[in-house]
Design a protein that fits this description.
Layout: H1 4-9, H2 14-46, E1 55-56, H3 96-113, E2 119-123, E3 129-131, H4 144-149, E4 155-160, E5 179-189, E6 192-201, H5 206-212, H6 214-254, H7 270-321, H8 327-359, E7 367-368, H9 369-382, E8 386-389, E9 396-397, H10 401-417, E10 422-429, E11 433-440, H11 470-480, E12 484-488, E13 495-501
Parallel strand pairs: 8-10
Antiparallel strand pairs: 1-6, 2-3, 2-6, 4-5, 5-6, 7-9, 10-11, 11-13, 12-13
Length: 509
């Protein structure tokens, strides 16, 4: 594509060619103005009669010796006229005085043509050529632009060019190779037409020029090719190589040859570094999730296996010894079966709660801590847990009311189950969060169990119906809303610290 840009740009050279046409017309106007001044000066020197020489043109405005610039008007949008008609025999005799001046002007015209290479014809007031390299003595009065100049008005036109030179290979891309600019410049002195200067030249053609310097173009194309190769190598080094390294790591992880995707040592660019870090973070998250699922499956199987084994043993005993077993023993076995069934039911319900907490999406609802505490206060006071707290802030929290209710309920239940009858709440407000301290006066958490309490299915009350999933559900819900929970040091009872996110887009009351 880079190599195609210069070739495609040739189609837009029409604008430049149009500028070349106007430049050519301006140069011809300048040459005609200089030759016209020389002609008029020759007339002044050679004229002996007191009358102004020339054909009077009453329609022309009188000259006031002010600046009268002629601006180029030709563009390639204008229709291209047919080639210039051939010169014809003059209908009138050549003006003798004009012929004399033409003889004087001829060397000037020849010398002038050496530099601009323009075709120059000097015509008398009747349109007969009186000076120039060719067609001297013939008439050009039948040509449209000459006729306009003979009325004292400047005229220019673009005509088709007939050339005996072979066209350049890129001929079809340019109009400038087969056109010629013609200007007819009247020589006027005080409303008297003294003659006409008829000039023509082919505009400079950019396509022909490019073909003439094709070696330089080939050299430039070679430089562009080298530049493209360097760009490809640079892209390969900065983008392709790091991406290929990431692909190799993902393939190794896929086939079990590697556990985690590691960040690239030399990502080169900032974007690739971000991509590498994202892949590594995703790999670590998936690995942690896989480990969690494996541990969870192990714990679930263990938790279900124990009561199922007990139930199976009791049923087998009842089946084998139902007729001989005392009634009291039968009732004991049946009570054990009911207890294990109830435990399995409770375990299933807690697992469903945990599953909902794990897959829950953040809600757009907000809640307030004082409303949630007030709703739970009477319920737990009746069960023997007194809630003590000072005035709570009314800042809106970026957490759904039902989620906040489940979190607080799990913690209050945990306090009740460990013998607490008082729970003190204190709140510290930060810029983006609320830190809620919940300190009970229960038995607390032993040093041996402090690192285990957030492990799924860990409980010290298994015989009393504990499932060990309450804190795990709390952690999942808080994680969903960007919060957290931690166990702090305490000399008495248990001290949990909740981190709850504030809803800043809501108005504080």
């Amino acid at each position: 594509m880079v190599l195609a840009l210069p070739l495609g740009g040739l189609y837009f050279f029409r604008i430049y060619e149009n500028a070349l046409v106007q430049q050519t017309e301006l140069e011809l106007i300048s040459q005609a103005a200089a030759l016209s001044a020389s002609y008029r000066q020759s007339v002044r020197i050679l004229q002996t009669a007191p009358m102004i020489y020339g054909r009077y043109l009453p329609a022309l405005p009188p000259t006031n010796h002010s600046y009268e610039p002629i601006t180029p008007t030709l563009t390639l949008i204008n229709p291209v006229q047919l080639p210039r008609p051939e010169a014809a025999a003059p209908a009138l005799h050549v003006d003798k005085f004009a012929q004399k001046i033409g003889g004087l002007m001829n060397p000037i015209i020849f010398d002038t043509q050496h530099i601009p290479l323009a075709g120059i014809r000097l015509l008398d007031m009747n349109g007969t050529v009186i000076a120039g390299r060719e067609e001297v003595g013939l008439s050009l009065a039948q040509i449209a632009e000459v006729q306009q100049a003979m009325q004292g008005r400047y005229a220019s036109v673009i005509r088709q060019r007939l050339s005996d030179e072979p066209p350049p290979p890129l001929y079809s891309l340019s109009r400038g190779t087969h056109i010629r600019v013609f200007v007819a410049f009247p020589i006027v002195e005080n409303q008297h037409l003294q003659g006409v200067l008829y000039l023509s030249r082919t505009p400079n053609n950019i396509i022909k020029h490019l073909f003439e310097v094709q070696n330089k173009i080939l050299m430039a194309s070679g430089c562009l090719l080298v530049l493209v190769i360097l760009l490809v190598l640079l892209v390969s080094a900065t983008i392709s190589r790091p991406i290929r390294e990431l692909i190799r790591q993902t393939e190794r992880v896929k086939h079990g040859e590697q556990q985690l995707i590691e960040p690239l040592n030399n990502p080169v660019t900032y974007e690739i570094a971000q991509l590498s870090d994202s892949f590594a973070s995703m790999s670590h998250a998936l690995n942690e999730r896989t480990d969690y699922i494996q541990r969870f499956a192990t714990h679930v199987s263990h938790e279900f296996k124990t009561p199922l084994t007990s139930m199976q043993g009791a049923l087998e005993l009842l089946q084998d010894h139902l007729d001989t077993m005392p009634s009291e023993q039968q009732h004991r076995f049946i009570d054990n079966l009911l207890a294990d069934t109830q435990r399995l039911k409770q375990l299933v319900n807690r697992l469903l709660e945990l599953a909902r907490a794990d897959v829950s999406e953040p809600s757009q609802q907000d809640s307030r801590l004082n409303d949630a505490i007030f709703a739970l206060q009477n319920r737990y006071a009746e069960r023997g847990l007194q809630l003590n707290y000072a005035k709570l802030p009314n800042n809106p929290l970026a957490i759904a009311p039902d989620a906040l209710d489940i979190i607080l309920t799990n913690l209050f239940e945990n306090s009740l189950q460990h013998g607490a009858h008082q729970l003190t709440l204190s709140v510290i407000a930060h810029e983006n969060t609320l830190k809620v301290h919940l300190h009970d006066n229960g038995t607390g958490v032993s040093l041996a169990n402090r690192t285990k309490i957030f492990t799924p299915f860990f409980t010290t009350r298994r015989n009393n119906g504990g499932t060990g999933l309450g804190l795990e559900i709390t952690v999942s819900l808080l994680k969903t809303y960007g919060g957290g929970i931690a166990l702090a040091e305490s000399t008495e009872g248990a001290l949990f610290v909740l981190t709850l996110p504030l809803a800043h887009d809501k108005k504080n009351y």
